[in-house]
DNA sequence: AAGTCGACTTGGTTCGAAATAA
DNA sequence: TTATTTCGAACCAAGTCGACTT
């Protein structure tokens, strides 16, 4: 690519780095842990390097998992090549074989983490709160420590329980309940302790709810958990309720049903390669030999594993291995980062501390790629039944509209109105077309369907060829070199023109989103890097910047809202993103140390004489307990949704003696419906805030997000409202996993994880629309179960007969069935029963998850180290939980100590 | 103090490929 | 194999929040 020259520089550096002493490389890590095994590992590593001629190779590996080739150099073996780096991926395969081998390295190694921690810690200390707990550095794990801490920390919600859920759906209930079923008792293992007990806050409330609420779970833990969880409401409810809510907001009707559903029941795929590995850690801890392997010191584990077999409890041990294996791959990346870090590092690392915030030293990329120009199709729409000729521009926009024929937007007057405004402008004043309602876009729509069909019918070779062609064109845009490390670019494609699809009742839905040209785009690139060539001949970029305090590679103004921007950033797997992700979780963990005092402080302020203080206290309480979003002010030209600070009086209903019912549209116009029991002072305060106001007035009239965050910052450095969401989500996962994981096979453990994941999704109100085929799928399952039950009945009859020495009855077709022994029949009956039970469980899970989106929390709220550590402790292959992109995104978390607790 | 700008995270839906069921 | 169904990645809208203005 284009880059050449400069590139060199870069490369050079890299090389050095790689080889260099650099402090951190992934390899190292490995070694430490496994050492013994290492030998093998090492080899591997070495190879890599060789393989690719030096630097490049290193590059590549480093960051993304993908191939990299750097552009510049000659060397570039194509991307694919680098075996080494194989990213994360699957276990299965591949690459690994070699590496895998015996050893398996554990995952990654990152050194960095440590550093971060330190920082954070320091920070903590400085500040007031008493912190106290020690943090365990991830690395070392302190075994015991953890537990205690955690308790306190629990999510508020836990304290109280949520109460009701509206029953709408039932969903709520289900959650809990079902879980039980699935997993029958899971109690907590002894090892873990239950933290809950002590928790002060929780104490306050809690309890009560239990009974009634469906939600309440059995486990004690419940209490502590976030409230929300309880049942919840939200999701399901949604629909039904919509109307209601709408009153206030009137927005989003929710769903009509739509697509997807997935069931939760997933089956595990095969993946596991796992096997190998042992854990890495150094081990240090004391061990306990007991049953739980978890607790067992690493060292031991290792041993165990190594040899292979189980030691005591066989199962456990494995876990470690499993996890690691997959992980290892990821590691590679780290190296680079680190290198850089070295230099820069000090600065960088410090979270935020920093420096003015230099985000990078050298940045190289090829700019962005534009969508192809519009291709005329010549199909005419009918106006009053007559075909109309359109100019290319008019046709392009007409087609955008035609294609949306079967979407729900066609039922929205606002959408049509906005579309007509923009399209009629293109048609011009004297155009024949004067009324959208007289337009029949069917011919264009049908043409579109045909095109789609054609595409679908293409042979796989054709498809493949097309794909490769596309890849070839895009490849140079897919990568950037940041501080010498090749990193994937997130969205290098400029958004194509289209009609704006705002969510909920967005005032601008249907407006034309015009085509973006190079002259709209500002490029940000390293000072010494070559300026990307403008891909459209004859045109040029709007501007070129060299700002290393930001991470964007390019941006343009949003055509719908010119005051806003659309940015091109690096992909989630990049170290720049990984670093900030880690900082986010470290901040949330820091909150653990402060939470007790924060809760005590706001509790005290529930009755403050100062209204503002009281509002801040109550708002903070809601954010903490219900994981509400902050709630910034919105303009009139946006969908009218709310968050905590923007709640309207009508969004909260007081239900004596001390319950609050929330019903509002939040982000993306997703309805939040939840009824919770709150402390009396909160209940009373809300009542006061509501008196004398109308339903559409702000509940917290003395508050906005900047005031709230300014206040939070006084309590803990860097604390903002959103940190509570991260904290609540992660602490909930950590606690649930630790309490409920018990012995069992991998599939059972995965179910436990999914249950915890679901709990978090409910707390955060992460919803999805119901799949169009959901009901059909459910009825099909029901049918199958009925059928199986019939078979079962027949088997029982045959069994009776067989016992009496009679032959089985004829089957439905009248044919004679085989004569089976009573034993064989009994076995069959047992199998059929098991099958029926499994299907019923799967069905229940599917129903429960039909409106719950698990992915969002996994990507944004759950500290991946919790998951990785749990997988290591319980021998669950990490790829059962994280897919390929998550593995890449969380590469920084892969080397966490198995004893890590949030 | 409020409003605006700017950068970056969070979030649901869509699209297409992969996995399964038929 | 074919038809689904499931799953992951892409997409891009919609939030959060700090900094800078007015």
Automatic annotation (TrEMBL):
Ion transport among keywords: no
Keyword Nucleus set for record: yes
Domain DNA topoisomerase I eukaryotic-type stretches: 499-875
GO MF: DNA binding; DNA topoisomerase type I (single strand cut, ATP-independent) activity
Biased segments, Basic and acidic residues type: 1-12, 184-194
Coiled coil: 449-476, 778-849
Comp. bias intervals (Polar residues): 26-48, 92-103, 163-180, 207-218, 230-239, 259-278
Composition bias, Low complexity: 61-75, 305-328
Annotated segments matching region Disordered: 1-335
PANTHER family: DNA TOPOISOMERASE 1 BETA, DNA TOPOISOMERASE I
Family per similarity comment: Belongs to the type IB topoisomerase family.
UniProt function note: Releases the supercoiling and torsional tension of DNA introduced during the DNA replication and transcription by transiently cleaving and rejoining one strand of the DNA duplex. Introduces a single-strand break via transesterification at the specific target site 5'-[CT]CCTTp site in duplex DNA. The scissile phosphodiester is attacked by the catalytic tyrosine of the enzyme, resulting in the formation of a DNA-(3'-phosphotyrosyl)-enzyme intermediate and the expulsion of a 5'-OH DNA strand. The free DNA strand then undergoes passage around the unbroken strand thus removing DNA supercoils.
Designated name of the protein: DNA topoisomerase I
UniProt organism field: Gossypium darwinii
């Amino acid at each position: 690519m284009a880059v050449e020259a400069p590139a060199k520089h870069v490369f050079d550096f890299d090389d050095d780095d790689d080889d260099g002493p650099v402090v951190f490389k992934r390899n190292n890590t490995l070694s430490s842990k496994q050492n013994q095994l290492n030998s093998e590992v090492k080899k591997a590593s070495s190879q890599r390097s060789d393989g690719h001629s030096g630097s490049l190779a290193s590059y590549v590996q480093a960051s993304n998992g993908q191939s990299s080739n750097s552009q510049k150099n000659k060397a570039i073996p194509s991307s694919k090549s680098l075996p080494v780096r194989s990213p994360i991926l699957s276990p299965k395969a591949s690459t690994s074989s070699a590496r895998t081998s015996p050893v398996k390295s554990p995952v990654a190694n990152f050194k960095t983490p440590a550093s971060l921690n330190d920082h954070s810690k320091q920070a903590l200390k400085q500040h007031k709160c008493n912190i106290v707990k020690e943090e365990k550095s991830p690395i070392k794990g302190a075994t015991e420590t953890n537990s205690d801490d955690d308790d306190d920390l629990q999510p508020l919600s836990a304290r109280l329980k949520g109460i009701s859920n509206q029953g709408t759906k039932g969903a709520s209930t289900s959650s809990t309940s079902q879980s039980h079923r699935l997993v029958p008792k899971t109690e907590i293992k002894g090892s873990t302790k239950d933290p809950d007990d002590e928790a002060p806050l929780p104490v306050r409330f809690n309890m009560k709810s239990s009974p009634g609420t469906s939600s309440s779970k059995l486990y004690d833990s419940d209490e502590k958990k976030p409230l929300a969880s309880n049942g919840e409401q939200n999701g399901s409810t949604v629909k039904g309720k919509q109307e209601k809510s709408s009153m206030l907001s009137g927005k989003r009707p929710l769903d009509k049903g739509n697509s997807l559903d997935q069931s939760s029941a997933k089956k595990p795929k095969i993946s596991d390669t796992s096997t190998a590995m042992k854990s890495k850690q150094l081990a240090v801890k004391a061990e306990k030999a007991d049953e739980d392997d978890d607790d067992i010191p690493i060292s031991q584990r290792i041993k165990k594993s190594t040899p292979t077999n189980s030691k005591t409890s066989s199962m456990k041990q494995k876990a470690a291995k499993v996890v690691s294996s997959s992980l290892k791959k990821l590691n590679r990346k780290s190296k680079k980062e680190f290198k850089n870090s070295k230099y820069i590092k000090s600065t960088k690392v410090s979270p935020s501390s920093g420096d003015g915030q230099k985000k990078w030293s050298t940045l190289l990329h090829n700019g962005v790629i534009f969508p192809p120009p519009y291709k005329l199709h010549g199909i005419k729409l009918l106006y009053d039944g007559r075909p109309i000729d359109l100019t290319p521009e008019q046709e392009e926009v007409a087609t955008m509209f035609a294609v949306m024929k079967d979407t729900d937007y066609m039922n929205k007057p606002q959408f049509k109105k906005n579309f007509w405004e923009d399209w009629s402008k293109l048609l011009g004043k004297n155009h024949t077309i004067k009324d959208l309602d007289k337009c029949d876009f069917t011919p264009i729509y049908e043409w579109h369907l045909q095109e789609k069909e054609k595409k679908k019918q293409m042979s796989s070779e054709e498809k493949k060829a097309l794909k490769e062609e596309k890849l070839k064109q895009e490849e140079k845009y897919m990568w950037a070199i940041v501080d010498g490390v090749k990193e994937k670019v997130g969205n290098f494609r400029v958004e194509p023109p289209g009609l704006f699809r705002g969510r909920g009742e967005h005032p601008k839905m249907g407006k034309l989103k015009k085509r973006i040209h190079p002259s709209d785009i500002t490029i940000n690139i390293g000072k010494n890097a070559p300026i990307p060539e403008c891909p459209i001949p004859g045109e040029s970029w709007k501007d070129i910047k060299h700002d290393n305090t930001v991470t964007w590679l390019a941006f343009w103004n949003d055509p719908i809202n010119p005051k806003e921007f659309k940015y091109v950033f690096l992909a989630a797997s990049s170290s720049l993103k990984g670093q900030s992700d880690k900082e986010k979780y470290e901040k949330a963990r820091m909150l653990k140390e402060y939470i007790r005092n924060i809760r005590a402080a706001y509790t005290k302020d529930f009755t403050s004489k100062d209204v503002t203080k009281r509002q801040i206290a109550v708002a903070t309480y809601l954010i903490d307990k219900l994981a509400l979003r902050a709630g910034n002010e919105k303009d009139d030209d946006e969908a009218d949704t709310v968050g905590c600070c923007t709640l309207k009086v009508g969004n909260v209903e007081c239900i004596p003696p001390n319950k609050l019912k929330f019903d509002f549209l939040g982000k993306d116009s997703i309805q939040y419906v939840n009824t919770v029991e709150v402390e009396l002072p909160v209940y009373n305060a809300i009542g006061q805030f509501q008196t004398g106001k109308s339903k559409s007035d702000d509940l917290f009239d003395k508050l906005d997000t900047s005031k709230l965050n300014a206040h939070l910052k006084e309590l803990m450095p860097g604390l903002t409202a959103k940190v509570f969401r991260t904290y609540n989500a992660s602490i909930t996962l950590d606690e649930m996993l630790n309490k409920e994981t018990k012995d069992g096979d991998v599939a059972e453990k995965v179910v436990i994880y999914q249950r915890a994941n679901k709990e978090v999704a409910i707390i955060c109100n992460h919803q999805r629309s119901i799949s169009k085929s959901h009901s059909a799928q459910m009825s099909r399952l029901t049918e199958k179960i009925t059928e199986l039950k019939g078979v079962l009945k027949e088997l029982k009859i045959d069994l009776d007969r067989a016992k009496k020495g009679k032959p089985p009855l004829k089957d439905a077709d009248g044919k004679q069935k085989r004569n089976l022994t009573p034993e064989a029949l009994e076995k069959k009956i047992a199998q059929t029963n098991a099958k029926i039970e499994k299907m019923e469980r799967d069905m229940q899970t599917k129903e429960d998850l039909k409106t719950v989106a698990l992915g969002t929390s996994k990507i944004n709220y759950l500290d991946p180290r919790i998951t990785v550590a749990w997988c290591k402790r319980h021998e669950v292959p990490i790829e059962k939980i994280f897919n390929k992109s998550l593995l890449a995104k969380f590469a920084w978390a892969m080397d966490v100590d198995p004893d890590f607790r949030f």
